[in-house]
Specification:
Blueprint lengths: L7 H13 L5 E6 L18 H7 L7 E4 L10 E5 L4 H7 L5 H8 L3 E4 L3 H10 L3 E4 L14 H12 L4 E4 L1 H9 L3 H22 L8 H13 L5 E2 L4 E4 L20 E6 L1 E3 L2 E2 L2 E6 L6 H20 L6 H18 L5 H5 L39 E4 L2 E4 L4 E4 L2 E5 L4 E3 L8 H8 L2
Parallel strand pairs: 1-5, 3-4, 5-6
Antiparallel strand pairs: 1-2, 2-3, 7-10, 8-9, 9-12, 10-11, 13-16, 14-15, 16-17
Helix pairs in contact: 1-4, 8-9, 10-11
The structure holds manganese (II) ion.
């Protein structure tokens, strides 16, 4: 692994938290992700299943975790199945976890080769009642392919039709939403790598540069710092492209007088940063650009202060909408009449600020976690208001990543320049 893995103690703790939520005689099975095919014998880069990773730290394909906490034989209560390796396989396919390494990474003592799975599982199922299996229940998930977990559910139900089946996803969502300190630290590394990329491009950008040249600068800086690259498809959008929320072509030439918006983050150890900034291509904001910029920045700061333990995320989004509404009045983008006439279901401010302000962040960029229950300390959110004025070719979004504390918050991006003066100064050095 090119990254520094988190300690096994974290994964031991994570498993303990899950066990507390299980009924008597439960069994839990989680599968790794498949290596996805492209064409011919091509494959996509492996990306571990985040629930399995959260409970084991094991970053390898063909891995299965079984938890069976009430099984009479204590050695069988926690088993990790790995794809088999030996010296010969290591030469052909590269290094895979040995049993010793897997124990060191996960804290799981009983490590077996995955070829043993069927018979061991059969023994465990004989004394188990509730079977907790993993499904992807992310609200925005588009699941067109069958995952290894989904295949397992199908086969398991066929083989053991009279067991009671349960959803693991709600339990995992609840656990993963509240992060341990070691996870904040991993997220901090992802944010620090993102910062290095941003500082690099500040001195690189000038009129005539292509958006994808900027993309390459970010990538260079990320990869040389131990990141596997972008946490998500980067948005590098100059001028009016910034008003297209999911612009990922990154193919235009940056023009003098335009702004350029980045929504770019590095991944590190499977944790993700999610940053947005908007800067002037020529190193100086115009009066109008700066006025809009300052408005977005004020909304971002006010929003950060609203995110605290006990806050309901739905109420928070409404509150931020009101703050945005008053900024848009100040910028003369909205009038009082617009607001009087507005449909409460579709407030007038949405014309210029059409997306949400915050989402959970962690092992997933749009991380799992409820958007309805009150906020708890240890949750990590993005705060990303924006104003998009297509008719003026101006799109500005400012996005930081924060950890909710008992009091206030920890801004993981506090070192990434955001003040207009500082950005101008760094660009003109
Ligand atoms: Mn975001």
């Amino acid at each position: 692994m090119r990254y520094e893995a988190l300690p096994a103690a974290l994964y031991v703790k994570n498993r303990k938290k899950l066990l507390k939520k299980l009924p008597k005689n439960a069994i839990v099975v989680l599968n790794s992700n498949d290596i996805m095919p492209t064409n011919a014998d091509g494959t996509m880069r492996f990306r571990q299943n985040n629930d399995l990773l959260y409970l084991t730290g094991i970053d390898q394909e063909e891995t299965v975790l079984v938890l069976c906490p009430d099984f009479p034989n204590p050695d069988m209560r926690e088993i990790l199945f790995l794809r088999e390796t030996d010296e010969h396989i290591a030469i052909w396919e590269g290094h895979k976890y040995t049993k010793e390494e897997a124990y060191a990474a996960s804290g799981i003592k009983n490590i077996q080769w995955v070829s043993n799975f069927e018979s061991v599982f059969n023994t465990l199922m004989a004394l188990s009642e509730g079977v907790f299996l993993n499904t992807n229940e992310h609200l925005r998930a588009a699941v067109a392919v069958e995952t290894r977990d989904a295949r397992f559910i199908k086969n398991c139900k066929k083989r053991y039709p009279l067991h009671q089946y349960h959803r693991l996803a709600p339990l995992m969502q609840e656990l993963r939403a509240v992060k341990e300190k070691q996870e904040w630290e991993q997220l901090q590394k992802a944010c620090d790598i993102t910062e290095a990329g941003f500082r690099r491009i500040l001195s690189y950008i000038k009129p005539g540069v292509k958006e994808y040249e900027i993309e390459a600068e970010y990538l260079h800086e990320f990869v040389r710092r131990g990141s596997r690259g972008f946490a998500y498809e980067p948005i590098i959008a100059s001028g009016a492209n910034a008003c297209v929320l999911h612009y990922i072509d990154n193919k235009e030439v940056c023009q003098d007088g335009d702004l350029i918006l980045f929504d770019v983050g590095a991944e590190y150890g499977n944790y993700n940063a999610d940053m947005s900034r908007a800067i002037p291509v020529n190193g100086r904001f115009t009066k109008r650009q700066r006025d809009i910029y300052q408005a977005v920045l004020r909304v971002q700061r006010a929003a950060m202060d609203l995110l605290r333990p006990g806050t309901n995320i739905q109420d928070y989004h409404k509150e931020v909408g009101l703050i945005m509404q008053s900024e848009l009045l100040g910028l003369k983008l909205l009038t009082k009449t617009d607001i009087k006439k507005q449909d409460p279901q579709k407030p007038a401010y949405k014309k210029y600020f059409m997306h949400g302000t915050s989402h959970h962040l962690g092992l997933d960029v749009h991380d799992v976690g409820t958007m309805y229950n009150p906020i708890k300390p240890g949750m990590v959110f993005t705060v990303e208001p924006g104003i998009y004025v297509m008719e003026e070719g101006i799109g500005i979004r400012l996005e930081n990543n924060i950890v909710i504390q008992k009091e206030g918050y920890l801004d993981l991006m506090k070192n990434i320049p955001i003040e207009a003066e500082e950005i101008e100064e760094l660009m003109n050095r």
